[in-house]
């Protein structure tokens, strides 16, 4: 996501909890500005769910992007930062590792089904120290069950470890509309095009072209969710035409921009 045209970051508070009062702890946030947390980690799992707006979690491995009805799962102990688009409505769940033994390792983006959404909404209304052996405790168990079944979605931009690629990727993230070819970047970085292509595949699992396309499409989610015209978003992302942008969007996400947000 390019910072151009965005409000200045503001520091968000992070719960100063020595331990969770219950195995699952909830937090509701309305974020009026583009927000940034400093790099931090938790001794528990964090699920950050965007009801409205677009949420991003950045780790050393990559950027994990959650438009509405998606959530980012952050494992315990993983250093990360959280960004959000203006007017984001966010629900955070903090989960004790003792109740998430089913979860695979690593940060990931999950799809939030209508049932899971309503369970999170209902949980947000419970008292912090809910009765674990009563009705509230049973609701939490169903919530955990539905979380374990939530499908992962491919809304992640992998980031490289190689310093030369990091320089290239930082520049593209700041200016996704630029059209420099891999050959031009290889000349700028004083490395062969073949080596640069091999490094991209090794560090990100994607070709240079596929990585740049994913960067552009993930960056397009915030302006699209805010109601900007598809044509304007396409041009800002570096596409020559609206039809080319929609074709790339459909290839990446399996549907058009309009259907993506209606869903």
TrEMBL record:
Q: Which organism is it from?
A: Pseudomonas cavernae
Q: Where is the HTH araC/xylS-type domain?
A: 166-263
Q: What are the record keywords, sorted?
A: Activator, DNA-binding, Repressor, Transcription, Transcription regulation
User: GO molecular function: any one?
Assistant: DNA-binding transcription factor activity
Protein name listed in UniProt: AraC family transcriptional regulator
One biological process term in Gene Ontology: positive regulation of metabolic process
Pfam families, A to Z: AraC_binding, HTH_18
The taxonomy runs:
Bacteria, Pseudomonadati, Pseudomonadota, Gammaproteobacteria, Pseudomonadales
Q: Which CDD domains match?
A: cupin_NimR-like_N
